Hints:
Layout: E1 6-10, H1 14-26, E2 32-36, E3 48-51, E4 54-57, E5 63-64, H2 74-81, E6 88-89, E7 96-100, E8 103-106, E9 111-112, E10 115-116, H3 149-157, H4 159-174, H5 183-186, H6 188-194, H7 200-210, E11 220-223, H8 228-238, E12 241-243, E13 248-253, E14 258-262, E15 269-273, E16 275-278, H9 282-289, H10 294-301, E17 304-316, E18 325-327, E19 336-341, H11 342-345, E20 355-362, H12 375-390, E21 399-411, H13 416-430, E22 434-436, H14 439-442, H15 446-463
Parallel strand pairs: 1-2, 1-16, 2-12, 7-18, 16-22
Antiparallel strand pairs: 3-4, 5-11, 6-11, 7-8, 9-10, 13-14, 14-15, 17-20, 17-21, 18-19, 19-20
Amino acid sequence: MRQPWRVAVVGGGIAGLAAAVRLRDRAPAGTEITVYEQSGVLGGKLRTGELAGQPVEFGAESFLMRDPTGAESAAVALARRLGLAEKIVHPTVGQAALVIDGGLRPIPGGTLVGVPGDLDRVATVARPAADADTDGGRPLVGPDADVSVGALVRSRFGNEVVERLVDPMLGGVYAGRADDLSLVTTMPALARTARVEHTLVGAVRAAQAAAPRAPGAPVFGTLAGGLSTLIEAAVTASGATVRRDAAVRELTPTGTGWRLTVGPTRDPELVDVDAVVLAVPARPAARLLAGPAPAVAAGVGALDYASVALVTMALPQPRLPELSGFLVPSTEGLLIKAATFFTTKWGHLRRPDGLALVRASVGRYGEEAHLQRPDADLAATVHRELSAVLGTPLPAPVDGHVQRWGGALPQYAPGHADRLAAARTALRAAHPTVVLAGAGYDGVGIPVCVRSGETAAEEIITALGGSAR
């Protein structure tokens, strides 16, 4: 193996940059790391912009502080590694609401992504099916099975719990529907306990007990100054060469490594490297793997994605409830599926002049036609629907922004984890110096993507025969 190693990271989102940082920390000294990003902007779905003179997130808004075991999440650990721990801030208002019958009702506590562990606590928003969650003498889910979240919850709690609680909660994260999303991938803690417990209430309670949270401990965090500071710090710490506007169009094995074809068809650049971290969505990854690993490409490329638009408005002194925001069940017939009151939720964003930043999310899987509307039409519809939900006309915005994220959110169908494991096993056997990382494989959320990138980096180090520093 030549020295120094040359590693390409394809994709400049948080997974790819976390991989680059981990490579710099643990690969042999002198390792050459190059990040290829086909757009002109790093960070993927982490993008801090500016509205009405202050920073605001146009993509992901926050990260979980703890992982499922209760330990510090990978996002917090990365922030600490990058010297940003002191910039972590937490919501000052945590209570959110659901839109039910056109009005706002507080989201009941004690649920796991909307799945209740106490049926009495959700009676204000949904009527659980009577006596359906009975002990049948066997676990809810077989040892190797995966089901949709909606199918499991409907069979135990009925339609209203799915439609008014679980569906809007999952829709806020994935822009998908509970009836289509994998239990194992989207709710792994519940999937584990459902393989043991005989009732869904018991499974929820067991999952909650397995990851206890100290009273008053914050669930979410973000960075003062915006999440783009995490991206900037990761680039600096990685010491990587960053190539923006550099699309990797082909990946070819060379016998000793890989040849990347970069840039336009008419004038391509050929780059030889020892290993590759593919930190791009499933379909671009599948295109790159189609030549060297066609069976893997077919399995990976089957994953579908949802598109969303985020409409942010700066409103002069609106009358807003003391809520972090609200979620909208699809049964309400609204275009918006969620809203966040940024300057209420995050105390560090509040302004003395009373200007409020409000963001609404638009777009559900299978309803992409709604996103074809012009920006002005989307913004006007969001403004009108927000006013209707709040029961009071909102003032005209003094500034606004529409951020479209095409193909942004993976739709993990049941069986996703098994399909991915098979693809990774085959790729590892045939081409161990190419590793997949990112939301398309391991789940959404900043901590999961960070961990995915770091794990990919460790696999590359092992595959190249090196020892971590």
